[in-house]
């Protein structure tokens, strides 16, 4: 495998930071572009002797912000391309006023902060803006660098799982909560709807752009900055990372447009 150039959104926390730390340590990684609206935490991930980490402060909902990053990559690189894009940025869609009230009362009720009775327009629209529009904005903005990744570089592409892994790949962190068929508990109105929309967006990219592989992955319920409390049954980012990596690295062109859990099982829409 030739040296990889990787772009990671949401790189300052949670699973995005775990992906950054992992890929920065690999000798096959050449360059990582780490994007987040918040700065990288200290200490910064240590890179292998072959890897460079370039951090960009970026708002994924702003096309101008992302185009600035694209311009920086294009202007400073002799052969600008991205081999792997990991989109990890997102928000949970909890109503801020409810969260504040719970904090003051010493309560921790995630479901209560996203329930039907408390959901409001501002929270719903903001969640769509970040989770659905943000995913579309990221992929569309960097698509020219992804589409150029496999051209003229001697990269093989074919059609089965575990094969053609050198074709440019986009992996979007989705959620089982975005599956309509898997919804048996209700609630979580903003988050569920925004992730269902995200899945529709990525599926359309897989149809419209044949020279890039697009995957949606449910990483499990992970301890992250999406909520300020640890949810029941939440796992560490390290536990989720280990299984997600097998999906990211094991899927090929024939899997483009599919929605997987972290064990590689297909999730119904």
From TrEMBL:
GO terms for molecular function: oxidoreductase activity, acting on the CH-OH group of donors, NAD or NADP as acceptor. InterPro entries: NAD(P)-bd_dom_sf, SDR_enzymes, SDR_fam. This is NAD(P)-binding protein. It comes from Periconia digitata.
